[in-house]
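Need the bound structure for 2P0, inputs here:
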Amino acid sequence: MHVKENSLIKATAPSNIALVKYWGKRNRALNLPLTSSLSLTLRSLWSEATVEESSSGQDEWEITGDPSKAQRVLEEARTFTGDRRPLRISIENFFPSGAGLASSASSMAAFAKALAKFLGEGTTSLDEMARWSRLGSGSSVRSLLPGYVLWEAGREADGSDCIVSQAFPPEHFPLSLVVCVVNDKPKPIGSTAAMERCRDTSPNYQAFHDRNSFDLERALSAIKNRNLQGLADVAESNCLAMHDVMHQANPPVNYFLEGTHKSISLTRELRASGVPCFFSIDAGPNVKIFCPPEHHQSVVDACNTLTELVDILEDPYKPPTS
Ligand code: 2P0
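Answer from helper R.:
Posting the output first, comments after.
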């Protein structure tokens, strides 16, 4: 009989920011999105998961916040591998959790990778890992790959064609990221509940999904042609359309704070003054500013003039190693 190893397994995964956003599900239980999304995987904002066999005879968790998302990932990995040994699990985010910085994406991706190494002994396919990870957080599947990543919604009821792939490697169109942290506390309403309120009450929910393929096509073409202004146009307008869906929900879902508006204005001023950059905002008040690496410091210097920010996080472009 083959005896499985019991050494401690570690895996890491970075966060990702969508340039064409996911904001609605076609199946909540399976976390299948209504439309496809396109993101850039980051480098310096990341999570680490460790997995080893538990000697206490039951699962032991060391995790910030609610473990229910991770428990769904674990259950799926156990069902697939048939390995139900009790585990000792830790998941740690090396950046603020729950503030719209996609910590659930990086943490669930890191956890799925660690489970794939431990329970799947490294033979688990990307599609299978993504299936486990998706049950914890939809957008986490995009964190399983570097660079520009496409998460396809698919049509099949079981999600078998809901897959993730790299559209372009990061070095094709290098971009740095500066995060204007307006508030680093957990958000007032989680993404899943906010998406459902939008689906049930927002008059422009459908219109947002109707523009998805047009936005995806424009974003992919802009990345392909290394066209920053083109990518800025589509990413900013897709992001603002998503927030408009939220603002028109009843009651409104409004993640924006004073510092959010100031950071948006700052980005527009910078661009007008000749610094190529654009913003994106997720389910939180913090503003992510993308720019070519050579303009990273100018963006940081400009952000430092904003008194509303509680922090500035930097995710400079790093050429891939290996
Ligand atoms: C995205 N967001 O595409 C969108 C834009 C936030 C705003 O996906 O419900 O943790 O677990 O699938 O992936 C954040 O939500 O939500 C998200 P679930 P997830 O990045």
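Comments: The longest strand covers residues 37-53. Residues 18, 21-23, 31, 37, 104-105, 137-139, 191-192, 282-283 surround 2P0 (CB under 6 Å).
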